[in-house]
Amino acid sequence: MIKRKVKNLELPVIGMGSAGTYDVEKPEEIEVRKKILDNCVTYGTNFVDTSPMYKRAEQVIGITIEGKRDKFLLATKVWCSGRETGIKQMNRSFELMKTDHIEVMQIHNLIDWRTHLPVLEEMKAEGKIDLIGLSHYSPTALAEMAEIMRTGRIDTIQISYNVMEREVEKEILPLAESKGIGVIVMRPVGHGILIDRLERQPDLTPLREYGIETWGQALMAWLISDTRVSTLIPATTKPERVKENSKAGERVLPKEAREYVLREAQRCLKPGKYTMG
């Protein structure tokens, strides 16, 4: 697994997201999530992203990593307005995930960022968190995100980026590179739409020499082959998918292979919206 350094952390280029997949309650469902996270340790995809917005996700993560907290790099978010409300929410995140330290704390969807940013700076100075981040899923928020990035007060951004949604290439990725800001990519396969809505099957033959066996691996390898990308956070409900995803993070594709993936995406996918708000 390739790792990329963001400030004082080394992140695996393939991590794990929890939006829509960790809001579970039944013991058998929680056990499946435990197997997923156990596999994340086995295959090196141990950067786990979550949020209070994802309902029970933080609690389920806390349950499933108990006793092996040191095996994971955790990222969550503050998702509210108001200083005291934000502090209370973040304290609750520490409690739910049963930890006194969180590697990355992000301002979810830039909500009330002017209030939360000084608080996160205090938490970082106290050693409660390592990195301060921003997240937003929509291209309409990129201008404001860039404004905050230029202040130099941000360590990471989380953005939606894939072969069919490339708005971040214009300004955000160059700015992240120039400022030394880590880039966490959500929706690398467009919530699965880039796989489920193929009009024709991609030809993976030219990619097999790079260990690419599935279209999902091709999509993720295309992303991590851009060295400005620090890590991807695909989500899954299938423990076996962790191994498949991890293989996409074993090598960087050369330019010609990356261009081939893009051509196949354009050939096999219908133009349209490939993310969800």
Textual characterization of the structure:
- With 277 residues, this protein is α/β, with parallel strands linked by helices.
- The chain has a single domain (3-195, 229-238), classed as NADP-dependent oxidoreductase domain (TIM Barrel), CATH 3.20.20.
- It is built from ten helices and nine strands.
- The strands form two sheets. Strands 3-4-5-6-7-8-9 form a seven-stranded parallel β-sheet.
- The protein starts with a strand and ends in a 9-residue tail after the last helix.
- The model has no long low-confidence stretch (mean pLDDT 96).
In brief:
This protein is of the alpha/beta class and 277 residues long. The protein has helices spanning 27-43, 57-64, 83-96, 113-125, 142-149, 172-179, 193-196, 215-224, 239-247, 255-268, and strands at residues 3-6, 9-12, 47-49, 73-78, 102-108, 129-135, 156-160, 182-186, 231-232.
Secondary-structure map with pairings?
Layout: E1 3-6, E2 9-12, H1 27-43, E3 47-49, H2 57-64, E4 73-78, H3 83-96, E5 102-108, H4 113-125, E6 129-135, H5 142-149, E7 156-160, H6 172-179, E8 182-186, H7 193-196, H8 215-224, E9 231-232, H9 239-247, H10 255-268
Parallel strand pairs: 3-4, 4-5, 5-6, 6-7, 7-8, 8-9
Antiparallel strand pairs: 1-2
Helix pairs in contact: 1-2, 1-9, 5-6, 8-10
List the strand order in the largest sheet: 3-4-5-6-7-8-9
Number of strands: 9
- As a whole number of angstroms, the C-alpha radius of gyration is 18 Å
CATH fold name: TIM Barrel
Q: Helix count?
A: 10
- Give the structural class: alpha/beta
Q: What is the makeup of the main sheet?
A: 7 strands, parallel
Helix content: 25-40%
Look at the structure and give the CATH class: Alpha Beta
> Termini distance?
30 Å
Percentage of residues in DSSP E strands: 15-25%
Order of helices and strands: EEHEHEHEHEHEHEHHEHH
